[in-house]
Amino acid sequence: QSVLTQPPSVSGAPGQRVTISCTGSSSNIGAGYDVHWYQQLPGTAPKLLIYDNNNRPSGVPDRFSGSKSGTSASLAITGLQAEDEADYYCQSYDSSLSVVFGGGTKLTVL
Amino acid sequence: EVQLVQSGAEVKKPGESLKISCKGSGYSFTSYWIGWVRQMPGKGLEWMGIIYPADSDTTYSPSFQGQVTISADKSISTAYLQWSSLKASDTAMYYCARLRGNHYSDFDYWGQGTLVTVSS
Hints:
The structure holds two protein chains of two kinds. By secondary structure, chain A is mostly beta strands. Chain A contains no helices and nine strands. In chain A, strands 1, 3, 4, 7, 8 and 9 form a six-stranded mixed β-sheet that branches. A three-stranded antiparallel β-sheet of chain A has the order 2-6-5, with no helix packed on it. The radius of gyration of chain A is 13 Å and the shape is globular. Chain A starts with 8 loop residues before the first strand and ends with a strand. Chain B is mainly beta. Chain B has strands at 3-6, 10-12, 18-25, 34-39, 45-52, 57-60, 69-73, 78-83, 92-99, 107-110, 114-118. The interface between A and B is medium-sized, with 26 and 24 residues.
């Protein structure tokens, strides 16, 4: 059981908008620690997608955005494309456990 | 260009020891924490621990404390993950990754992964 809870799967049609939630607690996200998001394409290493809640590294399309409120965070993907089909993970810091990851969400593009 | 290049896949028997490596290049290796992340077959990412190569300050996840050893040799810009006695349950892909800032920050660069298979 991961400290950060994500839905196991989400899906959407090409062009649609999907969101992936990441729910934590008062010892991690709710304590003010930043949330980061990673995309893992099949058979590859994770890639940083969003850092510090809502910042995109150079090269990441602006179709990807992040937000954080209270003890939760969300990743939004607009204009869904077939190439977005991947696993997505949130990451934060927990005051008792140090670095923590969410369980991951598999995005299927219908 | 920042790169983290990991050692190749390993096949080991239960009870054997193993040390895998992660070589950094394209940046000041001693200025960034390096972390290790486990991904068991078909499962999610699990943080194992981090090391600061400048002074080898190390923090382990409670789940991995005592199970593995993380070390670094700053003279050759390389971090290591080692086991003294492997178990079948250690079968997984292991990634090293660079922490962009302090313990609270993101992993901005990742190695390609090292697949460890433990089987009798």
